[in-house]
Design goal:
This protein has 95 residues and is α/β, with parallel strands linked by helices. 51% of the residues lie in helices and 19% in strands. Strands 2-1-3-4 form a four-stranded parallel sheet, with helices on both faces.
């Protein structure tokens, strides 16, 4: 299956969603699986559980924007990612 890379981004910012879609396009056909909430979560599944998965993930792309820093959901994810001692090795920011 390859490497799983989670992505944390703001739904509120169209540009953030376009960046994530572009990442999906670039990674299609590689051994890197971009794990995105709208692709992974089904009806009735817990967004909080998914946010906790992001915090525990080995690799996370952080799509940083003004909307990201204003979102309590994104801040929850960022705190969870940052809360582990290997933050710099796991987090891959895109500004």
């Amino acid at each position: 299956m390859g490497v799983k890379v989670y992505v944390s981004y703001s739904w509120e910012a169209e540009e953030d969603s376009r960046i994530v879609a572009r990442l999906e396009d670039v990674l299609a056909g590689t051994d890197i699986q971009l794990v995105r909430d709208i692709r992974k979560l089904g009806y009735g599944q817990s967004i909080r559980q998914f946010m906790d998965e992001i915090g525990a993930a080995d690799q996370v792309v952080l799509v940083l924007s003004d909307a990201y820093f204003r979102s309590p959901y994104c801040m929850y994810e960022l705190r969870a990612v940052h809360g582990r001692p290997d933050f710099r090795a796991r987090a891959h920011p895109v500004v």
